[in-house]
Amino acid sequence: MATEHDELFVVFLRSAPNFDQAPELLERPLATCYSYSEARRIQRLLQATPHDCIIRFTGQSGGGD
């Protein structure tokens, strides 16, 4: 089973802060990145816009003993 792209970082763009709705309803996926640094670069490019930029890790977390 190939797992080289199972762990990704998805950059979401959130429109307006509306506290009556769940955040997931206000967000739309903007980019899928293979590294956190790539996702952060996109987030920094969007700092001057009126939108919030959220990075979410999509993959297995943990790995403890």
What would you note in describing this structure?
Helix content is 22%, strand content 32%. It is an alpha+beta fold and 65 residues long. The longest helix has 10 residues.
Tell me the total number of β-strands. 3
Termini separation comes to 23 Å
Order of strands, widest sheet: 2-1-3
Q: Give the overall average pLDDT.
A: 82
Judged by helices, strands and strand pairing, the structural class is alpha+beta
Beta-strand portion reads 25-35%
The helix/strand order is: EHEHE
The count of helical stretches stands at 2
Q: What Rg, in angstroms, do the CA atoms define?
A: 14 Å
Characterize the largest beta sheet: strand count, sense, and whether it forms a barrel: 3 strands, antiparallel
Shape: flat
Instruction: Specify the helix fraction band.
Output: 10-25%
Quaternary organisation: single chain
Summarize the structure.
The protein is of the alpha+beta class. It has helices spanning 23-26, 36-45, and strands at residues 8-14, 27-33, 52-58.
Topology:
Elements: E1 8-14, H1 23-26, E2 27-33, H2 36-45, E3 52-58
Antiparallel strand pairs: 1-2, 1-3
Kindly list the characteristics that best describe this protein.
2 helices, single chain, three-stranded antiparallel β-sheet, alpha+beta, 22% helix, 65 residues
